[in-house]
Amino acid sequence: MSALASSSSAVLTASPDQVAPNTRWVAPALVAVALINWLASVALFITHPLAELPLYFARRYLVLDATSLLFVVLVNTVFLGISVYILSREHTSNVLSHDIRSRAGLMLAFMLIINLGVMSNHLILMWALIELSTLCAAPLVARGDAASPKGVAWRYMLYSAMTLSITFLGFMCLAQSADLRGVDISFSVDQLGRALTTNSDGWQRLGLSFMLFGLGGKLGLAPLYSWMPETYEAAPTSTSALLAAVQFNISVVAVFRILQVFQGFESHFVSQELLLMGYLSLVVAAVQVMAVRNYKRLIAYACVSSSGVIALGLSVGKAAAYGVVLYIVSNAFVKSLLFLTAGRLRAVYGTNDVAPLSGVIRVMPFSGLLFTVGIFALLGFPPFASFLAEMMILSGIVQAGNLMAFTLMCVMLTIIFVATGRTVFPMLWGASKREGPPVHESWIAALPKLGFVFILIMLGTYAPKPITQLLIAVAQSIGG
């Protein structure tokens, strides 16, 4: 019995090389696959001018247009950074090295589903793929080190099933509307508009309401937002980044598709529903950020705030549309940067609470600096793209004459700014409570984060013309 105990102890304390030498190839292979996917997405961007789009595939179930092209490049760029982070952590984490095979397999299945979902030309197919991505993500969430990670994973799945059920009710209401009018309905994005009517139609309006409400829940919009802070905090940081910067964007694409279909139909109703959810989300985020004392949950509530800003921008459309698209793109990199850096803080300090952390920038100079940069980008400081995007959204709101939305957004973002600074800045620059030399980070771990910072600065100062044209094309597709 004692021999068995000593053997188990030896396994738990062994280095990754001793524990699982036959899995050392998995993390490099994950990076290689992510790199191939990223190169393929960039090749699509380079070889397919906007004038040649859209292109349809797989019996028109898949489409390559400006929207799908932008988000395919975006999610694969983020995933490449997350994969490199996994590679850097796998050598120092026994927990990660033990289940790297299953994690890598789930992540690759997740990304395959996300890519197909982003390119989907059929709303019901996209709906099914969003749910499949949740099924792949839930086991990853359950690998977190919270008090009850499996319980969090089950609640995440339950919320996802609930929000997507509401969305499906919307599809059924649209079908009922078409049936009552004797019209054939197809849920292909390029054909659904033929089954809609400009006349007052209760079933059509109810269907639109359910779809936006359900997908709003997937985006973390109030009132169905509570899954997001809990899940993002409890999941491993790489999974939090996947959910916040990758899965989030397939739900954004679904909302964009609905807006594209409903252009000219129920525009005022769409605007009012998005406006209300945006108001509620900003208020909820501001209140919660003031009370939170956990840096990972703080990032999660900032994600709720970001969803509120997106909803307000989409409710205005027109002049704010370009700002919304730029904000979504920049937010993906900000979230990834913050969550991956939070993973390094967790690895060194062993906690997500702010109280035990002080003087992080002295203990972990590089990670502390990157976390500071990420916070500044999150709060909308120049020269980051988030600053330019927020200014464009606010400008669009003013041009639309909605002074209430302008005032609320300014006040709530100011509260979030002050509350975040009060919580985070002492953690970063206070007197250090940890003895010993500074903790250094490998260049492999630093590379993706530096890449994200470079992209944020580039988009906020001078974006290459092809990228700007792509952003403009997506903005125009949603009414900009």
Summarize the structure.
The chain has one domain. It is built from 20 helices and 2 strands. It has a two-stranded antiparallel ribbon with strand order 1-2.
Oligomeric state of the chains in view: single chain
How many alpha or pi helices?
20
Work out the helicity level: over 70%
State the total count of DSSP E strands.
Answer: 2
User: What's the overall geometry?
Assistant: globular
Structural class: mainly alpha
Mean pLDDT: 91
List SSEs in N-to-C order.
HHHEEHHHHHHHHHHHHHHHHH
Please list the strands of the largest sheet in the order they lie side by side.
1-2
Radius of gyration: 22 Å
What does this structure look like?
- It is a single chain.
- This protein has one domain (25-477).
- Helix content is 74%, strand content 1%.
- It has helices spanning 2-13, 16-19, 26-47, 66-90, 94-98, 100-118, 123-141, 149-180, 202-218, 227-234, 237-261, 267-291, 295-316, 321-349, 360-363, 365-378, 385-399, 403-429, 443-461, 465-477; strands at residues 55-57, 62-64.
- It has a two-stranded antiparallel sheet with strand order 1-2.
- Helix 9 packs antiparallel against helix 11 (237-261) and helix 17 packs parallel to helix 19.
- The termini are far apart.
- Its main location: membrane.
